[in-house]
Each structure stands twice: as C-alpha cells, then as structure tokens.
Amino acid sequence: MTEISNVARLSEPLKFAYWVPNVSGGLVVSTIEQRTGWDFEYNKKLARIAENSGFEYALTQTRYAASYGADKQHEATSFSLALLAATERLKVISAVHPGMWHPGVLAKYIITADHISNGRAAVNIVSGWLKDEFTNFGLEWLEHDERYVRTEEFIKVLRGLWTEQDYSQSGKYYNITDFTLNPAPVDVPGRAHPEIFFGGNSTAAQATAGRVADWYFSNGKDLEGFKENIAGVVAAAGDSGRGAGGALPTLPSPRFGLNGFVIARDSEKEARDTLREIVEKAHKPAVEGFRAAVQEAGASTKDGKGMWADSSFEDLVQYNDGFKTQLIGTPEQIAERIVEYKKIGVNLFLTGYLHFQEEVAAFGQEVLPIVRELEADLARKNGVELDLSRTPAATGTTSKLVNA
Ligand SMILES: Cc1cc2nc3c(=O)[nH]c(=O)nc-3n(C[C@H](O)[C@H](O)[C@H](O)COP(=O)(O)O)c2cc1C
User: Fold this and answer.
1) Which of 6, 124, 258, 271 is most open to solvent, judged by the fewest CB atoms within 10 Å of its CB?
2) Which protein residue has the closest C-alpha to ligand 1 atom 4?
3) List of the chain residues with pLDDT < 50
4) Residues near 208 by Cβ (< 8 Å), separated by ≥ 6?
5) Quick check: helix, strand or coil at residue 380?
6) Residue 235's domain spans which residues?
7) Is residue 197 part of a domain?
8) Which of 73, 129, 290 to mutate to test the pocket of ligand 1 (most atoms within 8 A of CB)?
9) Contact predicate 38/291, CB 8 Å
10) Residue 281 domain-assigned (yes or no)
11) What is the DSSP letter of 366?
12) Which pLDDT score, from 0 to 100, does residue 397 have?
C-alpha cells in the first residue's frame, strides 16, 4: 500500500485535464487508428464534451514546426482563446515558450483572454526542447540550465505584471520599468492571477518550478519516479520561503500535475492488447527521430536526469511518457491507480486518449465516479471529508453532445 505523503491533500478532489489535440497525428506516434482530429471544429466539440464530463482544464500544446509525425499544428494561444470563447466553464491552459515571447506581451494577451472568458485563462510555461524551432527562426538557443534561468525571470515578470502596479524588475533577460497593465486580470476568488503551470522534469526544471510556478506539470512517471520529482520541487519551494511562515507567505507551494495516457476498456486484457497494438504499429522512423531530438532535453543536462532521459522506445511512442503512469485497464483499475497517485501528492491528471471525443466522455461517465468514491473513502479513513463543492459538476449532457 502506498503511504500518504505530507503533501497529499485528501479533502481536495483530484482535478482532470486533457491534452488539446491542436497538433495533427494524435497523441501516439503510431499508425493504429486514432479517431482524433486536430482542427478547430473537432476541438470545439471536444472542449464542450470535456467540460460536461467533469474536466476542469484543457492544455493546448505549443509547436511551430513539424516533428515526429505531427506535420500540422495550430498556434497555442489563439487556439486556446477560441476554445475559451466556445466554452463556459473549462479553463484553458496555453503552452508558451519564454524564448518566443516577451513576458509583457504575453501578460497583456492573457489578461485579454481572461476578460473574454471571465477568468478562465491560464499558461503552461515550457522551456523548449526542439532546437530547430529556435535556430531556424533565428532565435538564440540557450544551453539547458540557462533556459531555466530565463524561464524563472519570465514567470516573475508575469506574476509581477498581473498583481502589481508600477512594476519594475531588472535581470539578465528582462528589464521592466514602472509598468502597469490595465485592466488587471479578472478577480476570481481563490486565484491570485491566471494560473501559472510549468512543464519539465530535469533537476533545473524542478528547482525553477519549486521557486516560481503555481503548478508543476510532469511527463508520465511511475509512483516512485514521481515521488522523487515531488520531493525536488517541494525542497526548492521550501528553500525559497514559499508558504506560511516563510519569506514568501503569499505564494503557496506548487501543486502537482501528472501526465497519463488512458486506455480504459471493459477488460484488462483488451486494454493491454490496445497498448500492444499501439506499440507494434509505432511509426519507427518518427519515434527514432524524436529520440534524437529530445537529446536536447534530459540527456543534455549535467546529471542526465531530464525529461526522456530514461525513456524506452515503447515509452516514446507516447511522446510525453504517458504509458509510464499506467492508466491502462478497466475503469476500476484506473481509478484505483489514480487514487494511489493522490496519496503521494498528485493534485491533477493530464490525460491523453486514442479517440478523444469518445474517450473523454467515457472517462467522465465510467472512471470519474469511481475515483470520487475512492477519494471519499480515503479521506474518511484519514479523518477528513472530501469537499465535492470544489469539483466542476458533470451535467449529464455528455452523450447527447457526443452523438450530436
Ligand atoms: C506537461 C508538459 C507539457 C509540455 N508541453 C510542451 C509544449 O507544448 N511545447 C514544447 O515545446 N515543450 C513542451 N514541454 C517540454 C518542456 O518544454 C521541456 O522541454 C521538457 O520538459 C524537457 O526539459 P527537461 O529536460 O528540463 O525536463 C512540455 C512538458 C511537460 C511536462
């Protein structure tokens, strides 16, 4: 049995997000059938299904150039804004690269998106791994750990411009002088500003997220692997004085989001067979090309511990290591596994699927209710109550939308 970590929040229901398929080719680099579109109409319908199925967030990917089977991509911030306009409750997190944006321009853009969506805009700050995207645009490609120096300054500018008037910050990469953004972001109870997610796995990524992010997002990991990442982030947060009693009492310690590719089927055998078929039909040259490109990430770090550093061929078929989390089996098995991760401190699952519209709806109908039951049991056994008033209510209109 998994021990309950002191960062686990047993009274808070888990949150669920899905990867927006704004990049062609689906979420696995395989010729297996994927009934997933990358166009806006497909995504608009998917977003509505998701918000009616208990999903609180959607994460839009940022990619500018074709890579490993994904030959077409829609730009993340504009796509996110359109999804916000097409939905009512879903929070849409747009991935952005510091090296591609000035933080003041992004801060302004997100404030506008936040007003259009009544306080539902969020960002995922990603430091980049696809070198050619930067060098072929004529942009500087910084060495691995230096990318995180820039990212940390970038996030501080965002938070400063979203929360203060006459904001100034001087640093190595950005210099802001007496700047006030008007209007400010929407005033949403319980949220200091649009949420700042942060994706990365290396030691430098963990340290940066620990110091400045609201949310630390990781590639797929097994339980032991993710415990290590959580420990790294928590240590950095503590050292920087975040949380009650520290030098930064108004900046709570980050929460934790984990990627997992969901294969929920009627039997475990069926789910495992689907995984086997995905891997057997992997697009081998694309996966090998990806493996070469990602050497710019994990393997290029000093301690060799970054993202994809220990990924096998099978892992890389889902390019964010989503199989490692093992959300594969019957709805009961998946729900049980999800709650094991809650015990170590996971607050949010970022999920991917073969057939997004159908499987997001099925997840809401078949997996989520079991997760809530198990979470309630776990809380009660530990002397607290699960606060379901904090979950987005499922409205039951899902199947109508799927068939629409
Ligand atoms: C949940 C998550 C989402 C990510 N999304 C993107 C993305 O949309 N575009 C991108 O270029 N990189 C993305 N990344 C990759 C990061 O930018 C970074 O390159 C990667 O974490 C490798 O860095 P590391 O070795 O320091 O961990 C994402 C990472 C995670 C964990």
Assistant:
1) 6
2) 199
3) 394-404
4) 148, 151, 152, 155, 198, 200, 236
5) helix
6) 15-403
7) yes
8) 129
9) no
10) yes
11) I
12) 39
Quote the pLDDT of residue 402: 40
User: Which residues are near ligand 1 (CB < 6 Å)?
Assistant: 61-63, 95, 124, 126-130, 199-202, 204-205, 217-219, 259, 297-298, 306-307, 320, 350
Which CATH number characterizes residue 389's domain?
3.20.20.30
Mutate to test the pocket of ligand 1, among 228, 307, 346 (most ligand atoms within 8 A of CB): 307
**Token pair for residue 400?**
């109508």
Give bridge partners of residue 318 from the DSSP assignment: 28
Q: Count the domains in the chain.
A: 1
Query: Residue 199 has which token pair?
Result: 């994706």
Q: How far is the CA of 285 from the centre of ligand 1 (A)?
A: 21
Residue 292 in domain:
yes
- Pairwise CA distance, residues 352 & 342, whole Å: 18
Q: Specify the amino acid at residue 206.
A: Q
- Does an H or E element contain 113, and which? helix 103-116
Report yes or no on whether pTM surpasses 0.85.
yes
Ligand 1 atom, smallest distance to 309 CA: 25
In a domain? residue 188: yes
Residue among 63, 75, 126, 147 whose CB has most ligand 1 atoms within 8 A, to mutate: 126
Question: What pLDDT, on a 0 to 100 scale, did the predictor assign at position 400?
Answer: 38
* Helices (runs of H) and strands (runs of E) counted in the chain: 14, 11
